[in-house]
Every structure is written in C-alpha cells, then in structure tokens.
Amino acid sequence: NAGVMQNPRHLVRRRGQEARLRCSPMKGHSHVYWYRQLPEEGLKFMVYLQKENIIDESGMPKERFSAEFPKEGPSILRIQQVVRGDSAAYFCASSPPGTGLANYGYTFGSGTRLTVV
Amino acid sequence: SQQGEEDPQALSIQEGENATMNCSYKTSINNLQWYRQNSGRGLVHLILIRSNEREKHSGRLRVTLDTSKKSSSLLITASRAADTASYFCATPYNTDKLIFGTGTRLQVFP
Fold it and tell me: If both were cysteines, with which of A114, B70, B71, B92 could A101 make a disulfide (CB 3.0 to 4.6 Å apart)?
C-alpha cells in the first residue's frame, strides 16, 4: 500500500512562472490537507479538501494560490506568478473518510521543495 | 497565534543518552500529537495522547501531557544516531487542521 505520493520532489521556478504541485493520497483516503513549511519553521495549514470540495481554505493566501481535488486524479496545489517568498516545502497529508484528528494522526507525503529564483 | 512553542530549539546528545523535548500550547485540546521529520523528508506520526491521558509509551518513546499547564514532553530513551531528526508537537484545531510547534532539532552523536 503506497503512502501519500507527492511530485515533483523538487521544483525550481523563475519569478512570475506558475508552480503545480501534485498529491496522490493513500488508497482509500478521500481527505487531503496541504501544509507549507518555511525554512527552520513548523508546518502551517493551508487548505483541506475532500473529493471535488474545498472544506477549509483559511490558511491559503487569498491571491495566486488555488487548490483542487478532482473526482479522478491527484490533488493539485497551484501557485501562479510565483515570488521568492513562495520558496518553501509543501507537504500533503491524507486521511480516510469518517476519521478526524480526534483519534488519528496524519500520514504525510515526502513533500515538494519549491525554489523560486 | 495558536502555534505552540517547543524547547529546546536544538539538542545535542551522545548515543545511549536520553533526550527530552517539551511543548507548550495555548488552547484547550482534544489530543496532542508528536511527529518526527528527518532532514529533507516528510513528517512521520509518532504518537497521539488524548486529553484524558497523562502518559503514553511507544517503544523507546514516552509522552506526558499536563493539561493544567498546557504542556507535553517527549522522552526518547537510549537514543541512537538514527533518532537524529526534528521533532514537532501538534494539536488539532477546528477538527480539521493541526497547529504545529516550532520544533526541536535533535542531534545524536555516535
């Protein structure tokens, strides 16, 4: 049973380009969470999605960032017109339906390290 | 900010010694979780302790929780070089997100 798969592992973009980060949840998991980690810091929540629904995007910057989790395929975190401050590690986690953080921890992917040059 | 604080920020010990990391948080919680992050990798869930529990063990890990002080500690006994990593505490917020602490970087020297 493969874990949470993220790709690419490393992504380099020039300022102004678009970055697309992909996350395939564990088999049977229908909830996906995206977190961002700046250097030397803990993870910060960005967005929580279920299939075809954004449940909570309170941690997502209002501009340039968007996320989706279509019925088929991976979840995508999209950053338009990237700036140097977007350089960070972006982690995805997944959980099965019907569970909550009251009883379970997350399963995280290995992350995508975005570098904006 | 809801983010917890961890101390120490960095800890260096020799193999075989015990490592203790502390975490403080700000709001009332349902549970508290500890994660490990090896350099350049994702986070691995280590242990979850519920608010009605005071202590929990898993292998060489021992976690305590003091809800009156809003604090938790993670003890790694008989540390190994492979325990070298960053350790984060995290608490659920609004049922669907985790608030992470700032982390403790542990270095275990052979």
Answer: B92
Q: Inform me whether the C-beta atom of residue A110 falls under 8 Å from chain B C-beta atoms.
A: yes
Please state, in angstroms and rounded to a whole number, the distance separating the CA atoms of residues A54 and A87: 24
Burial degree of A19 (CB within 10 A; 0-12, 13-18, 19+): buried
Closest CA to A64 of A80, A52, A75, A49: A80
CA distance between the termini of chain A = 36
Q: Per-residue confidence of chain B (110 residues) as pLDDT tens digits? A: 456 688 899 999 999 999 999 999 988 888 999 999 998 888 999 999 999 999 999 999 999 999 999 999 999 999 999 999 999 999 988 767 888 988 999 999 99
Mutate to test the interface with B, among A33, A41, A49, A101 (most CBs of B within 10 A): A101
